[in-house]
TrEMBL record:
GO terms for molecular function: (3S)-3-hydroxyacyl-CoA dehydrogenase (NAD+) activity; delta(3)-delta(2)-enoyl-CoA isomerase activity; enoyl-CoA hydratase activity; NAD+ binding. The keyword Oxidoreductase applies. This is Peroxisomal bifunctional enzyme. Belongs to the enoyl-CoA hydratase/isomerase family. In the C-terminal section; belongs to the 3-hydroxyacyl-CoA dehydrogenase family. It is found in: Peroxisome. Monomer. Its EC number is 1.1.1.35, 4.2.1.17, 5.3.3.8. The gene is EHHADH. It catalyses: a 4-saturated-(3S)-3-hydroxyacyl-CoA = a (3E)-enoyl-CoA + H2O; (3S)-hydroxyhexadecanoyl-CoA + NAD(+) = 3-oxohexadecanoyl-CoA + NADH + H(+); (3S)-hydroxyhexanoyl-CoA = (2E)-hexenoyl-CoA + H2O; (3S)-hydroxyhexadecanoyl-CoA = (2E)-hexadecenoyl-CoA + H2O. GO terms for biological process: fatty acid beta-oxidation. Pfam families: 3HCDH, 3HCDH_N, ECH_1. InterPro entries: 3-OHacyl-CoA_DH_NAD-bd, 3HC_DH_C, 6-PGluconate_DH-like_C_sf, ClpP/crotonase-like_dom_sf, Enoyl-CoA_hyd/isom_CS, Enoyl-CoA_hydra/iso, NAD(P)-bd_dom_sf. GO terms for cellular component: peroxisome. It comes from the Eukaryota. It comes from Leptobrachium leishanense (Leishan spiny toad).
């Protein structure tokens, strides 16, 4: 744990050592200050190098210690000021990462040398905070307001080559970073340090700075919808213009305290740790992430090059895994090839920007396009990504049974079909697993890994590990219709339809949920996904179309409330963005700019008149409560059924796959924050007034937890008890 010290010539090298990422815990901070003061007093030491153990400089403050009392007793600001004012040159030797407080520490050093593979950044905004150890004051003084603001507000991890260009680093080396830092320290001995102390420098003026900052605020409000940290970051950087350095640092402290009182940092830090926790999967049969080794995946194949397949091929190639990409005929193969190549070209551009052009083959795995399933005989893992049709999927898996090598894993990319049924037609159900990617699959971080009844632990471990290799956050879920995310979406969208029936317009509903923080309101989301998808599914279920029960009341099915609104839209050819019309109108078929459509208003008004529904225009709060509590209630049912192993899993799914605002932690964290007794009573009231909407009947687990006062979310798991686990 202690920061250790060794002398190289007359240079003291202080090593931060707090595995796994050298986070600046209270005890590490104490050791650093002690070692540093000793070195600066030692007359045999002429210069000091700061580095991190195990190839990592430092990932910043220890987030686990936030909120504890020891935080301020040895503040990072005190360390940074001591370093910056040191009379001997201090050089940071950056390997791996210098993030948050780690970069702030490095910015207090007089020089910075980094390994070419390293990343630097101030990602505090991603955990609901601002850099509060001088970062918002030193970085603008070093690289100017625009570049600093961009890094701080987006929390970007900047590759070393870019950081060198920006002026954050003084030198980038391919090997022996610490030696290079020692060399640098020797080289600068005797040179004046005044202009290397960032806290003493003026910030460079830029023209029209007020307009520039106002625009940044407007952009952040639009982009981060309700998240306070990006705005506080702008405020803190703005202070460099009118406050002296120390006052600017004091302002960081005030802004941090004010952010903390919003509860957003706590929610985002919960989200951060939940993402790491879901990787540590367990199963009731005793399977555990660190006990079951995954099989290495050296080659993979993807069947079907529609939107999902293209993204999955790109994702695999990006992870440097050679892929075989299959389509059923030459024409579709050609279309798929063009689309994949365009996506891969964009990836190459991104790699170039990161200075990674020297990686052999550009660091992308090769892609072989073919129409011949026979080519799959030697691949390690196959992902089927054809459209959602059980018969078609089964036909493919039957064929794969005889073509794929016996130890190959067979994955189905389905958003809700029964993985057991698909596995049942194969000769290896233990090696079959669901991998539910989210569109666009090369960008979206979420991967739902769906375990079937017979899926082996090795198969789970391999799919989860593949998710990590692809840079995704993989969540293990059980097999039930629609799995976790889409299952919860059902009652949420049901409420949207009922609100539309009752008198709200699509844009009002979207506005309320976008104000809540969702990246996209539900009506725009349905238009994007295609209204016909749900329509076809409802036809297959006999809820609408020719299979619907004859003489069924229009607004009821099987004794439950039913809204035919989306069916009616589809019957008039309005499938959403793809047809240029859905809940909104678009500039053209395939267009993306949604405009409220007077046709839709007329259609809804006429519908209400036909069915004699008195107009009830719900306000934002009612829209948010009904939609959110419907979603959350289903989340409790998912937990009861053990389809997800804990509330954190659900929250990670929603934060990463459904545009849920991370500053609210996730739907289950939000429920805990609102208070479970309140969620329960709202659902109870609705349910009493609407007994024909069973999805709003409060879940048993919600009642159970509310009955014990709504404990903190980390205690929910203990209340889950013995349920019939699907995990
Ligand atoms: C409180 C004192 C003074 C306050 C004033 C100073 C304010 C400073 C503000 C900050 O510095 S806030 C922190 C800013 N830093 C970050 O946000 C970085 C967060 N970490 C990451 O982005 C990643 O973890 C990583 C460093 C890029 C590494 O990613 P990788 O995928 O390689 O590993 P992970 O699984 O993510 O992490 C491994 C392990 O380490 C834990 N961890 C990571 N960072 C921190 C941290 N800053 N504090 C505490 N713990 C951290 C992570 O939880 C994993 O733990 P596990 O137990 O193995 O799951």
């Amino acid at each position: 744990m202690a920061a250790t010290r060794r002398l190289t010539h007359s240079v003291a090298v202080i090593t931060l050592n707090n595995p796994p990422v050298n986070a600046l815990s209270y005890s590490l901070r104490r050791s650093i200050i002690k070692e540093f003061v000793d070195a600066s007093k030692d007359s045999s030491v002429e210069a000091i190098v700061l580095c991190g153990a195990n190839g990592k400089f430092c990932a910043g403050a220890d987030i686990k210690e936030f909120g504890s009392t020891s935080v301020d007793s040895v503040s990072l600001n005190h360390i940074n000021d001591t370093i910056e004012s040191c009379k001997k040159p201090v050089v940071a030797a950056i390997e791996g990462v210098a993030l948050g407080g780690g970069l702030e520490l490095a910015l207090s050093c007089h020089y910075r040398v980094a390994n070419v593979q390293s990343l630097v950044g101030l990602p505090e905004v991603l955990i609901g905070m601002i850099p509060a150890a001088g970062g918002t004051q030193r970085l603008p003084r070093l690289i100017g307001i625009p570049a600093a603001l961009d890094m701080i507000v987006r929390g970007r991890h900047v590759p070393a080559t870019e950081a060198l260009q920006l002026g954050i680093l003084d030198e980038v080396v391919k090997t022996n970073t610490i030696d290079a830092a020692v060399q640098m320290a020797m080289k600068v001995l005797g040179q004046p340090l005044e202009n290397r102390r960032l806290g003493t420098l003026p910030v460079q003026a830029i023209p029209n700075v007020d307009t520039f900052l106002d625009t940044a605020v407007k952009r952040a409000k639009g982009q981060f919808r309700g998240a306070q940290a990006p705005l506080a970051c702008i405020e803190a950087v703005k202070a460099t213009l009118h406050l002296p350095f120390l006052k600017g640092v004091e302002n960081e402290r005030v802004l941090t305290a004010s952010l903390w009182s919003t509860g957003q940092p706590q929610a985002q830090q919960y989200a951060f740790f939940s993402e790491r926790e879901v990787g540590k999967w367990t199963t009731p049969s005793g399977g555990k992430w660190d006990k079951v080794p995954p099989k290495p995946i050296q080659t993979a194949a993807v069947i079907g090059l529609g939107t999902m397949g293209r993204g999955i091929v790109t994702s695999l190639s990006k992870a440097n895994i050679p892929v075989i990409a299959i389509e059923q005929d030459a024409k579709q193969l050609d279309q798929g090839r063009q689309a994949v190549n365009a996506l891969l070209d964009r990836e190459v551009e991104k790699l170039k920007l990161q200075g990674k052009t020297s990686v052999p083959g550009n660091g992308l795995g090769s892609v072989k396009f073919t129409v011949d399933l026979g080519d799959l005989h030697s691949v390690d893992l196959i992902i089927e990504a054809v459209y959602e049709n059980m018969q078609l999927k089964k036909e493919i898996f039957r064929k794969l049974s005889s073509i794929a090598k016996p130890d190959a894993f067979l994955c189905t990319n389905t958003s809700g079909l029964n993985v057991d049924e698909i596995a049942s037609v194969t000769n290896r159900p233990q090696q079959v697993i669901g991998t539910h990617f989210f569109s666009p699959a090369n960008i979206m971080r979420l991967l739902e890994v769906v375990r079937g009844q017979k899926t082996s632990l090795t198969t789970i471990a391999t799919a989860m590990s593949l998710g990590k290799t692809l840079g995704k956050v993989a969540v293990l879920v059980g097999n039930c219709p629609l799995f976790v995310g889409n299952r919860m979406l059902g009652p949420y969208l049901e409420q949207v339809n009922y609100l539309l029936e009752e008198g709200s317009y699509p844009e009002e509903i979207d506005q309320a949920l976008e104000e809540f923080g969702f990246a996209m309101g539900p009506c725009r989301m349905m238009d994007l996904a295609g209204l016909d998808v749900g329509w076809r599914s409802r036809m297959e279920q006999g809820l609408t179309g020719t299979n619907a029960p004859p003489g069924a009341p229009v607004r009821q099915r099987n004794g439950k409330r039913y809204s035919p609104l989306a069916d009616l839209l589809c019957e008039s050819g309005r499938f959403g963005q793809k047809t240029g019309k859905g809940w909104y109108q678009y500039e053209k078929a395939g267009g993306r700019i949604a405009k409220p459509d007077p046709w839709v208003r007329d259609f809804l008004d006429k519908y209400r008149r036909t069915h004699q529904i008195a107009r009830h225009q719900a306000n934002s709060q009612e829209i948010q409560d009904r939609c959110m509590f419907a979603l959350i209630n289903e989340g409790f049912r998912v937990l009861e059924d053990s389809i997800a192993s804990g509330p954190e899993d659900i929250d990670v799914i929603y934060n990463n796959g459904y545009g849920f605002p991370k500053h609210r932690g996730g739907p289950m964290y939000y429920a805990a924050n609102v208070g479970l007794p309140k969620v329960l009573s709202t659902l109870e009231n609705y349910s009493k007034a609407n007994p024909d909407v069973p999805s709003m009947k409060p879940a048993f687990l919600l009642r159970k937890l509310a009955a014990v006062g709504g404990p903190p979310i980390k205690e929910w798991r203990t209340q889950l008890g013995n349920t019939s686990s699907k995990l």
